[in-house]
Amino acid sequence: MMKARSHILHKLLDGCVQRLDTTVLDKMLPTKHEYVLYIQLTPLQIDLYRYYIKYSVNATKCAITNIMSPNSSEFFHDFRSLLRICAHPWVVINKSDKTTPDSEESEDEESFCEKSAGKGKDFGLVNLISDNSSEESASESVMETDTPTKTHINDDWWKVPFSQRIEEFDSIQCSGKLVLLFSILEDACNDKLLVFSQSLESLNMIEHFLAVIDGMNWKPGVDYFRLDGNTNIEKRKLYCERFNDTKNSQARLFLISTMAGGLGINLTGANRTQCVFRAYRLGQEKPCFIYRLIALGSIEEQVYKRQVTKLSISKRVIDEHQIDRHYKQHELSEYYSIDRISPQDKRPEVIIPEDPILATQLQNNGHLIYSYHTHDSLLENKVDEGLTQHEIDSAWNQYQIDMTKNEQKDRILKYRPFFEKAELVNLLTLKAKQDHPHQESVLEYIPALLRELHEQRANDDMRMLNELYDIYVSHGKKVEGSFDSHA
Asked: How is domain 19-384 classified at the architecture level of CATH?
């Protein structure tokens, strides 16, 4: 049924939608490989994540109702807090001070989140570093510490239960994402990288570790650039030109705020990124590798599932592709689930990817990467599963039947106030007179017609109602009081 309805909707929109996507440029561009990597959270991240979920009021509501809380502002507060944990614990304790110059964009991002919540929008992109297992006994010991009351959880919720582990918060090893990012930077020495984030806090975190890690010696404005809401137009242009300069091999990293640089910039100098269309466009000369690093079992994974589901619907309707359904409906609403953040089952068998850098990461940092797949594999068009001509004809026939029924219902509902004003018995009397024109009295036919009318309504049959409507229209106000004259 879904395929039939998608086909009908596609044909109805065919004359209204002009669809040209990036596939028209495939022959003019180098190859593109888009990978989705599920990164296991570190023990500290798991403890932080579980603690926050357990003592978040919104999470408690969702655990009971299995749906998102109606209070969307609370949800986005939880959303940002959980993404900070997924990025790195450093972000949790170094949440941007509102008095810093960066605060303007931070506030803009928060207001954007809350406004989007009111409009029912979703964040379709899971960033490489978003603002975003331990032993069982360690997790239990954390849960047994003093906890905040179950009101709206405060920003300093981590201080009491994790006060003995503060030193861990400043270690690069506390985030598999960050370890993988710096490892790719080290191995892809001949390539340039783009890192996008919806959060300035995450960009601050990356800059922090670029400065403190021994042997890296990354200099801002020379080895890497940063573009956010505080970057003026002149610097934006200058940074992009320097970064795209093929002779400038020293500048290998560009940190970009999604809100400030998600649109309108051309960065074909990079070929390893997570925001595909800033680099994979006309002017690109190298094969492109896109990495989506998603914290396993976290809220990031739920956001990604929703993104894939929406893209699948779009491709089914607009492009008439046959896309497999990968996620069940209940899985898309489990934002606060913690069942998979520390999986106990055997790790899936890994196939060697075409990207040599990713293959190296799987070999050297395989303990951080639980699994991976290509993003396009979830949106593959199964041509053989399309509708046959017989199924297409049946779909159109059913569509015509449904449309006729809907038109009849709309017709009756539209004139329902007029039917209520006229006496039903008067209309049935006029119908009986039409059916039996030679009878002097038609009262004996009224009960049978009334039973027939009720049976038809029970079976969603609109024939008699249509007849009564025609009688009503043809007689107009004369219907009222017509009982005596026709009886």
From this structure: 3-Layer(aba) Sandwich (3.40)
